[in-house]
Design brief:
Its EC number is 2.1.1.63. The chain is α/β, with parallel strands linked by helices and 160 residues long. It is built from 5 helices and 6 strands. 31% of the residues lie in helices and 18% in strands.
């Protein structure tokens, strides 16, 4: 059974969703990638509580790596891209080309971009660390202003 909760963050409300296998999603309130059915609201579910704690620590500047079981659901290609995203170090950015290279599929830059945009686990699976080859910010499902704020939180310089 899927469970969810809604938390407050410095960048707005987030909905967290999990099941017994792991975290399924973490979405800002304006993201359109949320599923139609979230499950049962359960503010006491241990994994949702731990996710909130770790996100609070991240926003407070005392956590730069997450330690949570992840269970995002997508195609084999999407999950491969999402797994590669988790290897981008805190405080660094990659281009879409670097991400395509990381999954040994250098010609899949556009497909990588689409998979990146469908990442259901914001921040924890750090799709915000992917920027354009030129160093400019590109789209972000949570809004470019949130992407900029997340990069600033990680002391990452970027072009607007």
């Amino acid at each position: 059974m899927n469970r969810f909760t809604v938390i407050d963050t410095p960048l707005g409300k987030m909905t967290l969703q999990a099941n017994q296998h792991g975290l399924l999603g973490a979405w800002f309130e304006t993201q359109t990638t949320q599923p139609n059915e979230l499950g049962v609201r359960d503010d006491e579910f241990a994994l949702l509580h731990e996710t909130k704690v770790q996100l609070d620590e991240y926003f407070a500047g005392i956590r730069n790596q997450f330690d949570l079981p992840l269970a995002a659901q997508g195609t084999a290609f999407q999950t491969q891209v999402w797994q590669a995203l988790t290897t981008i170090p805190f405080g660094e950015t990659w281009s879409y080309q670097q991400l395509a290279d990381a999954i040994d599929n250098p010609k899949a830059v556009r497909a990588v971009g689409l998979a990146n945009g469908k990442n259901p686990i914001s921040i924890i699976v750090p799709c915000h660390r992917v920027i354009g080859k030129s160093g400019k910010l590109t789209g972000y499902a949570g809004g470019v202003e949130r992407k900029a704020a997340l990069l600033k939180l990680e002391n990452i310089e970027f072009d607007v």
